[in-house]
Amino acid sequence: MNNWLKKSVTLATVLTGVSMVFGNLSATAAGNNDQSAALDYLNDVRAHMGIPLMELDPSLTTAAGKHANYLLMNQENGHTETPSKQGFSGKLPWDRAAAAGLDTDKFGVFEDVSFTTDSPEDGVQSLLDAPLHRSSLILPDMSLLGVGYNKHALVLNPAKKWFTHTGTGVYPYDGQMGVPIGFYGFEIPNPLEQFNLEKSGYFITYAGVAQDKTDVTASLKNSQDAPVEIYKLKQELGDTNAWHIIPKYELAYGETYTVTVEQTSWSFTTVDNPAAPSMEQKGNPVKTDPPKKFTSNDVGIRINGTYIDVSPKAKIIGESTFIPLRGVFEAMGAKVTWEATRQEVTIVKGSKTIVLPIGKKQALVNGIWQALSNAPFISTEGSTYVPLRFASEALGAHVAWESDKWTAVINQSE
Predict the structure, then answer these.
(1) How far apart are CA 97 and CA 67, in angstroms?
(2) What's the rounded Cα separation, in Å, for the pair 146 and 67?
(3) Which residues, 6+ apart, have CB-to-CB distance to 9 below 8 Å?
(4) Which in 124, 168, 301, 305 has the greatest CB count within 10 A?
């Protein structure tokens, strides 16, 4: 390939194919099992999509592993390496891949980094939940993958042969169940900013569109065949493009939606409402087994006997449990709002109204100020965290702690 053509295609990847997701930051060693776990998780998704599987490439894996170690050693979060710093292996992703032995005249190299790394599988899913990251991972002609993993970062280096087009990939895929209802801007760059939105419905991606396509026809309908208001966003991916279909508002729980882009239609179903009434008998809630092993950076939450998933994860700081703004309180039937100008969280349930100012060790409960042992805060990944015990008990719930399971237990009165 001519150098000028390689450079022009590579620059398109620099501008649009590289981005980051932030989450927990901690350290541990990587291994072949971690690489296989990430590859297997991604290939399982691709199998459900009906597109070719990817294979682990030694050169890309070397490059990804070295960059993950560079990020860990220097406690950095980016894609660019500095020659004077320890662990330097190349300035940009394609430089590192070339240094490790990949022919970058034939292959275009992308890079996605997740800092939500409690496991390689969680890291891959966090990238799939971030629309600007998922695009490169769901391209049918993306054939090679490099994986670097430690508890600071998961680095994925997918690669494809230039100017190969083997169809399109869609996510959520046809028939997918348990799809989240919304996207909340936890991605850098944040694709919602250009629409002046703080949140939207869960992004739907159609990847593998020809570069010269300046627009696509797209629609989204619910199970009653009612149209859903959408935005469209084009993302350039080197020698191909992806289009994102963005519901203007959060989707409904437990609803089936049908997407049509150009001549292709498919359907998916959103996750059930975690606040829906339980079928368990009343009285003391039946204790269920945890769905996985929890840790201080991924605290389990059990409400009235049922474990719920929250994203990002609840965590222990000092001796207090902090939870993300939404998830737990909405599962308790409360309404949660965020006021950006005043930097305040408001939680309303029945006759109770709690206002939690960010960074202040006091809260307003039905108009009366009360002291807090810990202040709400905004994490490095941009998520708002509030103290679990105070907010839950202020809503009339009882909170207990199971130290052997790293689980907070919330019981609500009927």
Answers:
(1) 10
(2) 11
(3) 108, 162, 238, 239
(4) 124
Taking CA 331 as the corner, what is the angle to CA 358 and CA 229, rounded to the nearest 5 degrees? Answer: 85
Give the 3-state secondary structure of residue 49. helix
Neighbours of 334 (CB within 10 A): 22
The pLDDT tens digits for 293-303 are 778 778 888 88
Task: Judge whether 85 and 69 are in contact, CB under 8 Å.
Answer: no
Q: Per-residue pLDDT averaged across 381-387, rounded?
A: 77
Cβ neighbours of residue 219 closer than 8 Å, sequence gap 6 or more:
227, 230, 259, 260
pLDDT band at 111 (very low <50, low <70, confident <90, very high): very high
Contacts of 72 (CB under 8 A, 6+ apart): 27, 150, 152, 153
Look-up of token digits 């049922």: 306
Q: Are 167 and 263 in contact (CB under 8 A)?
A: no
Instruction: Provide CB contacts within 8 A for 23, sequence distance 6+.
Output: 114, 115, 116, 117, 126, 312, 313, 381
pTM: 0.65
Q: How far is it, in rounded angstroms, from Cα 109 to Cα 214?
A: 24
Q: What is the pLDDT of residue 288?
A: 52
The owner of tokens 């960074």 is: 359
- Percent pLDDT > 70 in the chain is 86
